[in-house]
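Page 37, continued from 36.
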């Protein structure tokens, strides 16, 4: 009796499993930006289930290159991630690489699925840029498997230690320290830390920097106001701060989106900055300079950081030795924290 192996899955098999046309499956591999995110997810799920290797991926395996990297961001609607994506794309294109942009929408399941399927798609490397806590056994295993397949991984946040991947991130402890110290040096007290969602791996670093600055100034009665990284949640949290018995004279916002919520609440209360309450955001994006009042920030130059991340990943793909690094943030003084 002869036992035969199942025939390899075809593009038609993937199309049937995903409930789409063969042409749609083809576009997912050749021009992913033209396909809706939901449809791409269905197709890549089918690819993973069927262990399908597209012809383009097979060609890239033979040549050792597909000239494609993937950028996985926590939420493309956030100003930070959209500006980072633009910088990565421009730098990658300058070196002959295309970029597949994937919005995780804060979903660990989506991340796990993408890490499983992207190596099968033939991408040369992946940049993972999210502040969400994604350190799970599945993610660790998927990263190790991707590296074993020759797909390089670069992490944009300080997590998943020990996976052997490149890390290029901002010194977030220093970000919050500088932001807090700036307000304290103006004689403002109390100063509140607005943010620090428990779902974010960045929160402990921001909290540590805030507490260090307060301790150096001799303040122990700190104000921690946890909130999600959204404008609506930050608005509500700021309203609660303003109604408390210990109303702050300064607010350190964990992101620009959080700062927008704080500005809205301050304006509603007739306390719009600049004024009695100074406001600083813990990231620097172009939007900060376009607001009125313009928003003081502490952060890194995202255009340079995004380009450096793309270059480091491509260098690793091409076999050039590359080291992990942290980016030193700087204070950008604007009107929202004017004394």
């Amino acid at each position: 009796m002869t036992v035969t192996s199942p025939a390899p899955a075809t593009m038609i098999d993937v199309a049937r499993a995903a409930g789409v046309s063969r042409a749609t499956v083809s576009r997912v591999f050749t021009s992913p930006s033209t396909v809706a995110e939901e449809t791409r997810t269905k197709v890549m799920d089918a690819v993973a289930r069927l262990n399908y290797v597209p012809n383009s991926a097979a060609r890239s395996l033979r040549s050792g290159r597909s000239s494609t990297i993937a950028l996985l961001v926590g939420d493309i609607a956030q100003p930070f991630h959209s500006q980072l994506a633009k910088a990565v794309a421009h730098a990658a294109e300058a070196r002959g690489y295309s970029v597949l942009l994937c919005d995780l929408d804060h979903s660990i399941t989506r991340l796990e699925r993408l890490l499983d399927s992207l190596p099968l798609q033939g991408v040369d490397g992946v940049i993972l840029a999210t502040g969400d806590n994604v350190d799970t056994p599945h993610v660790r295993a998927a990263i190790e498997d991707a590296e074993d397949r020759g797909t390089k991984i670069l992490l944009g946040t300080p997590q998943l230690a020990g996976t052997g991947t490149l890390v290029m991130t901002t010194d977030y402890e220093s970000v919050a320290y500088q932001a807090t110290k700036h307000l304290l040096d103006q004689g403002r007290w109390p100063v509140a830390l607005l943010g620090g969602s428990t779902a974010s791996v960045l929160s402990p670093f921001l909290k540590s920097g805030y507490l260090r600055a307060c301790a150096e100034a001799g303040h122990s009665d700190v104000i921690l106001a946890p909130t999600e990284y959204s404008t609506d949640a930050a608005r509500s949290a700021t309203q609660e701060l303003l109604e408390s018995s210990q109303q702050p004279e300064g607010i350190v916002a964990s992101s620009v989106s959080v700062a927008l919520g704080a500005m809205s609440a301050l304006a509603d209360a007739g306390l719009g900055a600049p004024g009695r309450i100074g406001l600083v955001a813990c990231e620097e994006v172009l939007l900060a300079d376009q607001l009125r009042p313009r928003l003081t920030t502490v952060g890194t130059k995202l255009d340079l950081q995004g380009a450096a991340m793309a270059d480091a990943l491509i260098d690793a793909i091409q076999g050039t030795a590359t080291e992990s690094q942290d980016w030193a943030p700087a204070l950008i003084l604007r009107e929202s924290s004017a004394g």
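The first helix runs from residue 11 to 18. Flag for discussion at group meeting. The chain has 13 helices and twelve strands.
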